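I hope you will forgive my troubling you with a question about protein structure. The matter concerns a single protein, recorded as an amino acid sequence and a row of backbone structure tokens. Please examine both parts with care and let me know of anything in them that strikes you as inconsistent. Here, with my thanks, is the record as I have it:
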Amino acid sequence: MAEDIKVIIVEDDPMVAQINKRYLQKVSGLRLDGVFPNGKLAIAYLESNPVDLVVLDVYMPELDGLELLRRMRRQNLQTEVIMVTAANDSKQVDELLKLGVVDYLVKPFTEERFIEAMEKCRARIKMVSSGNELTQQAIDSMMGARSEKESETPDYLSLESTKSLNRKTMRLIMGALADIVGGYRTCEELATHVGLSRVTVRRYLNHLAEHDQLESFVKYDTGGRPSIKFKLK
């Protein structure tokens, strides 16, 4: 099983920190390593503990989120950062993006938006750590790029009539499929990669196959039952 992604929350408001913690624990594949009320305590922890993702508030006592992020970059701590703040000033957002923030959540945010940010970051970290060459589709997913054509909802993402599926999970699974160049994955391999059950992943694969989005072949030399492998067309 792949190692969990290590996360810390840096937030001075105990109520907001508790909400962030509760939301984060709903995302599989993430492990909360600590909650810190200010940047001073967080940077001390980061300097001696490897962390994959920081969920970071901007306005805090002693050392605010922006200065913490600047120090992280000066010390070459290339941890992924998602900012959580009530501010949406364009100049501040621009500076944060230049410092490598991967997402920016403006309070009050919904549970769905928080989880979307976590899942996007999780997929990005897994793609980078895989060591595989990336397809254009996988790179676009990492960069958040969408063409005008892609902004139109294709048939296979029109899931309103399919209550057991949702678009966010569909994009997560398609991102995992796009992460492979010239190769195929089984349902079990995809389930491990995205942190979902095989039953769930199978439903999405069946939906994609019905909409002619997959190529597949049966592998017989498994030493047991034949397995089906998939990739995006």
